[in-house]
Design a protein that fits this description.
The chain is an alpha/beta fold. Helix content is about 40%, strand content about 15%. It has 14 helices and 17 strands. The strands form five sheets. It has a seven-stranded mixed sheet with strand order 4-10-9-8-7-5-6, with helices on both faces. It has a four-stranded antiparallel sheet with strand order 13-14-17-16, with helices on one face. Strands 1-2 form a two-stranded antiparallel ribbon. The structure holds ligand C6P.
């Protein structure tokens, strides 16, 4: 099958040269086909070098020392914040909080804004396609505070049922918290419309951008999101650092999350006054090297261009959907290509997803098998687990061909 024309908008051969791990063979003569970027993306050399050079040349704690290294470390850390702000369309970097990951960002909102503002009987709207990271923090708060949780259903096509959403909004929710892109179905949700309707009904909106920010342009200001959470490690950056964007007035009014160094202005024996934004939410020595890496990841994605990345991935997704659907006994879940990103969860008749994944590994093909931290969604689909191939800017159509060839071998091995 010929690659579709939109695949030419990004020079994938040049991109691949940027990622050292793509040279790796899983065993002699078996090159790596990495199709697990929804779990974590690979890292370009510029990101690896930025972390290496931070430790080799700059290493110092930030916001404390006045020596050269401390000043350089502080400047690099804050430069990364400014880059992230620009990347998500925000002019005021005080609204960008560094956390450990998207999960911690959502927990921060639940434990500070949620705990201070939500009361018994208040309604929080989530969706049936949420990752556990955008379910469990609200469940924990709901059981503590007596909140009501309601869910926008997922339709048979793998989309959110916006008619039911409208009826839930009529009940006067305080918060709508939803994923911008499903890590199982690949569904890209109509975030701007969901937020507009939430605001119309007087609710705030939290966007889980863990799978969207890495893959297409996301402008928090244009979306009018109140909160946006994402992780560096899925967007070519390192593990250990994530982002919470929040509107300044909300962040100002929220109590601190964790207590300790850096988040304070003054401390007395029995009390403290919190620091200004964004430091109020960054207690203790943060992930400094990782912030340098995140800054380099933002530079990298910006240099490749988020529009070309999105359009390249879209073409690749169409190609992958076509190729997977031609394999007898393979069932792909989620909406058609126009509503989805490059996440392809599937089952094979009579073969357990873990077995599929294990056999594919023999051919160097790395995919994920399981519930992908979305057990309620799998329950809704009537499945315990799926196999999931997920794509990024460095994948090529011939890697999808390798996946499909290997799936035919899986069928042969299991006699199906
Ligand atoms: N999904 C996956 O394989 P963390 O772990 O905090 O960086 O990201 C959490 C998270 C939140 N929301 C969505 C939509 C996600 O996909 C994830 C992470 C990975 O699907 C790891 S479970």
């Amino acid at each position: 099958m010929e690659p579709v024309s939109s695949l030419t908008s990004l020079d994938v051969e040049r991109v691949r040269e940027d990622f050292p791990i793509l040279q790796r063979e899983i065993r002699p003569g078996v090159p790596l086909v990495y199709l697990d970027s929804a779990a974590t993306s690979q890292k370009p050399a510029s990101v690896i070098e930025s972390i290496d050079s931070y430790y080799a040349r700059t290493n110092a704690n930030i916001h404390r020392g006045i020596h050269t290294l401390a000043e350089e470390a502080t400047a690099g850390y804050e430069a990364a914040r400014a880059k992230v702000a620009k990347f998500i369309g925000i002019s005021n970097a005080r609204q960008v909080i560094f956390t450990r990951n998207a999960t911690e960002s959502i927990n921060l909102v639940a434990q500070t804004w949620g705990r201070a503002n939500l009361h018994s009987g208040d309604l929080v709207i989530l969706t049936e396609m949420e990752h556990h990271s955008n379910l469990v923090p609200w469940q924990m708060l709901a059981s503590e505070k007596g909140l009501r949780l309601e869910f926008i259903p997922v339709t048979d096509e793998g989309l959110l049922d916006l008619e039911v959403y409208q009826t839930l909004l009529a009940q006067g929710p305080r918060l709508v918290a939803f994923t911008h892109m499903s890590n199982v179905l690949g569904t890209i949700t109509p975030a701007k419309e969901i937020i507009r309707l939430a605001h119309q009904s007087g609710a705030l909106a939290l966007v889980d951008g863990a799978q969207s920010v890495p893959h297409f342009p996301v402008n928090a200001a244009d979306l009018d999101a109140d909160f946006l959470a994402f992780s560096a490690h899925k967007m070519c950056g390192p593990t250990g650092i994530g982002v919470l964007f929040g509107k300044e007035a909300l962040l100002e009014a929220m109590p601190p999350f964790l207590g300790g160094g850096d988040m304070i202005r003054k401390v007395f024996l029995r009390s403290f006054t919190p620091n200004e934004l964004p430091h109020k939410f960054e207690a203790g020595t943060p992930a400094i090297a990782e912030a340098f890496g995140l800054g380099a990841a933002v530079d990298y994605l910006t240099s490749r261009g988020m529009e070309p990345i999105a359009s390249y991935e879209h073409g690749l997704t169409e190609y992958a959907l076509d190729r997977l659907e031609e394999v007898p006994g393979v069932h792909v879940y989620g909406p058609p290509a126009q509503n989805r990103g490059g996440v392809l969860s599937f089952t094979m008749d009579g073969i357990h997803p873990h077995d599929v994944s294990q056999v594919l590994d023999r051919y160097g093909v790395a995919i994920r098998a399981g519930h992908h931290c979305a057990m309620p969604l799998h329950e809704k689909l009537g499945l315990a687990a799926t196999s999931r191939a997920s794509l990024y800017l460095y994948n090529r159509t011939d890697e999808i061909d390798r996946l499909v060839e290997a799936l035919y071998t899986v069928k042969k091995i299991f006699g199906s």
